[in-house]
Amino acid sequence: MSLTFDFNSVSQLFEKLKRDASLLDEEVTSDRLFNFVLTGYSMIDWVKNGPSVPESATEDSEVQSLYTDQWLKICGDLATACKHVRLTRRTPITSSATSVSGFGRGRLGQGSFGNGEESITVELNDGTTFDCCELVQGVLETWKTYLLTHGI
After folding, report:
1. Which pTM was predicted?
2. Backbone phi, psi, residue 137, to 5°
3. How many domains does the chain have?
4. Tell me, what's the pLDDT at 107?
5. Lowest mean pLDDT among 9-23, 66-80, 96-110, 117-131
6. What are the backbone dihedrals phi and psi of residue 48, each rounded to the nearest 5 degrees, phi first?
7. Considering the domain boundaries, does residue 3 fall inside one?
8. 97 - beta bridge partners?
9. H or E segment at 136?
10. Which domain holds residue 65?
11. Are 131 and 121 in contact (CB under 8 A)?
């Protein structure tokens, strides 16, 4: 009996990640970013345990490269914090993820009329800040490169 709905490969999860990214491109919301970071970080488990992943992709050094990738570390920080409220088993590189909404926030022409789009800013411990859309692009690029490198 499967507990993964209709998902059975890391490739399928990557397609979901791209759908999540597309939804964020339409409109940034905390709900959509939560889904994106959870999927982006969970894909590491699918690499480690997925039945259709080539052996070369599951080598310790390859999996470790995913855990040390800045974009995926941020996903891990945000996903774990959203799931468990606080981080107790990992040292985050992310210091905050703040959301603001209202007129004049978010991207021009996005969001509902008169309210504007939610804007989510991520700040790292080193003071680096960026918009969540940059995170989305970084995560997609990391996974695209990894999957292509391993013929997945």
Report:
1. 0.86
2. -65, -40
3. 1
4. 47
5. 96-110
6. -70, -35
7. no
8. 122
9. helix 132-149
10. 10-149
11. yes
